[in-house]
Amino acid sequence: MGKVWKFGDNIDTDAIIPARYLNETGAAHLAAHCMEDADPDFARRVQPGDIIVGGRNFGCGSSREHAPAAIKAAGLTAVIAESYARIFFRNALNIGLPIYECAEAARDVAAGDEVEVDPVSGLIRDKTKGTEYQARPLPPFMRELIAAGGLIAHIHARGGKENADA
Amino acid sequence: MGMTVSEKILAAHAGLERVEPGEIINARLDLVLANDVTGPVAIEEFAKLGRASVFDRDKVVLVPDHFTPNKDIPSAELNKQLREFARAQQITHYWESGRVGIEHCLLPEQGVVLPGDLMIGADSHTCTYGALGAFATGVGSTDMAAGMATGEAWFRVPESLRFVFHGAERQPWTGGKDFILYLIGLIGVDGARYRVMEFTGAGIGALSMDGRLTMCNMAVEAGAKAGVIEPDDVTLDYVRARARREFRVYRSDADARYLETYEIKTGDIPPLVACPNSPANVKPVTEAAGIKLDQVVIGSCTNGRLEDMAIAAALLRGRKIHPFVRCIVLPGTQEIYLESLRRGWIEDMVLAGAVVSTPTCGPCLGGHMGILAKGERALSTTNRNFVGRMGHPESEVYLSNPAVAAASAVKGEITHPEEVAGNG
């Protein structure tokens, strides 16, 4: 369960991690500047386990994988939005950041609400409001991939296991 | 049922007779691209896979263009990492400062990308190459790493949207930039999300290769997976002079399926500007006229090509940039720079009071070479005007074509080019 940070439509990757910080790739560096141009206090106030809720076309703009990486490094455990820009969608899952599409939750859930997401069922519970929303659950292979820490770690882990079996 | 040019390219690279929108395919890649921002992350991911070498050293393309010449110590370290990898892997398509250009200007010019190619690039403007009749789409560093290792990627076959430009004749002072801004204004920043934008009609046929590259470049600003234009004589004249390998031309069938077709009258489109903070916030330049400027940027992967330099130089020739304006010109490649120099355009621009920089993405993404202070306002031929894109979060960016940008640099405010050219 985590506290919600609410953002609007078309949150672009420059807002998530401004290009002036792309000269370094370390997790702590990215986390320190996460969402800086959308909310300058965000990185200072966000707590591990918190959740971002956005509107339409979340993560539009550049292909920088630093954007979902910054969100993950800042300790956020999920993003819920009405829709995602396609490169961000792919990048988020590839690095092991769980993201969910749910227009109703994106509309209703308010900043500061305590929200919980069940990755297996895709059920989103707003504990503050006492409401529930259904997002499409992540398929099992995607949950495995996220648990492994991303696509490359997943391939590696799977490769290692296959070798061990052989 | 026929297929679109995009479906044909995807099918051919997946070893299939045909593909349908929505289908997931695994396809062979002709090129895998990264730059100095996304490349180092991809190299770190690649290392975790434990592969000794990339799938094909001729098909991995690494372009240090964003923060080069190195803007600070951390970016120097990133570039060192990219350089060392390129050397260790004996990457064919890697260029040093002094030879490098902005990736999406450089690759078509050098004949690295050709019609019929399927490529991924860890840069969102990889969609530029659709102007050559290739299928090219932006990905992140992890997909880039996997592509570098295997030479393959999976794709969801996208639906296509068709934009037909009726009439070859366009309004004076307009070009590919105005066409694409017009469409983004029409359908919005997610209007083509997950789709291909296919541009066709007499208005596209009459556009130069440079104008077409500008159009496809900004397809991603409408959320598109790719932009594409079927090759014609303009395309073939351009690529035949550059290609050093075989290529294949694909064209859409007459009965190809489109999710939607938009009919556009080419002559209806005036010079446009996109106002802060969205590329979809588009107005005729006349409605933004008089807005005061601190900086003008002419260049980038969107408008840093020879035709753009010609247009800017023609307007700056014999005139002076407004005393309160910094006008920064960035030719997209060394070849464009050199040709602009030979034709006297660089001299025209310098005499007018412009900064002429070596090719770099630089100010477009607020990297270096022209960062905005709090409250400052720029007009730029680049592709994005998001909050803080070119510097301080409280600075502003307007987007336009190079004619509007050059004319506005002279007047110190957003200006229709006619106003400057008319009294020249």
Describe it.
The complex is a heterodimer of chains A (166) and B (424). Chain A has 166 residues and is α/β, with parallel strands linked by helices. Chain A contains eight helices and seven strands; from the N terminus they run βαααβαβαβαβββαα. In chain A, α4 (66-73) links the parallel β2 and β3. In chain A, α7 (140-148) crosses α8. The model of chain A is unreliable at 160-166 (pLDDT under 50). Chain B is an alpha/beta fold. Chain B is built from 16 helices and 18 strands. In chain B, β2 (31-35), α2 (39-49) and β3 form a beta-alpha-beta unit. Chain B starts with a helix and ends with a helix.
Largest sheet of chain B: 5 strands, parallel
Please state the oligomeric state of the protein chains shown: heterodimer
In CATH, the architecture of the largest domain in chain B is 2-Layer Sandwich
Q: What level of helicity do the residues of chain A show? A: 25-40%
Count of extended strands of chain A: 7
Strand content of chain A: 15-25%
Taken from the alpha-carbon principal axes, the silhouette of chain B is: globular
Spatial strand sequence of the major β-sheet of chain A: 4-3-2-1-5-6-7
The chain-level structural class of chain B is alpha/beta
Helix run count of chain B: 16
What low-confidence regions of chain A span 5 or more consecutive residues with pLDDT below 50? 160-166
Secondary structure: number of strands of chain B: 18
Mean pLDDT rating of chain A: 93
How many whole angstroms does the radius of gyration of chain B measure?
20 Å
In a few lines, what is going on in this structure?
The complex is a heterodimer of chains A (166) and B (424). Chain A is α/β, with parallel strands linked by helices and 166 residues long.
Write the layout of secondary structure elements.
The complex is a heterodimer of chains A (166) and B (424).
Chain A: E1 2-6, H1 13-16, H2 27-32, H3 42-45, E2 51-53, H4 66-73, E3 78-81, H5 86-94, E4 99-101, H6 103-108, E5 114-118, E6 123-126, E7 131-134, H7 140-148, H8 151-165
Parallel strand pairs in A: 1-2, 2-3, 3-4
Antiparallel strand pairs in A: 1-5, 5-6, 6-7
Helix pairs in contact in A: 7-8
Chain B: H1 5-14, E1 24-28, E2 31-35, H2 39-49, E3 60-63, H3 73-88, E4 93-94, H4 103-109, E5 118-121, E6 135-138, H5 141-150, E7 152-156, E8 160-166, H6 176-187, E9 196-200, H7 202-205, H8 209-217, E10 226-228, H9 233-240, E11 260-265, E12 272-274, E13 282-284, H10 285-288, E14 295-299, H11 300-303, H12 306-316, E15 326-330, H13 334-342, H14 345-352, E16 355-356, E17 377-380, E18 396-399, H15 402-411, H16 417-422
Parallel strand pairs in B: 2-3, 2-5, 3-4, 5-6, 8-9, 8-11, 9-10, 14-15, 14-17, 15-16, 17-18
Antiparallel strand pairs in B: 1-7, 12-13
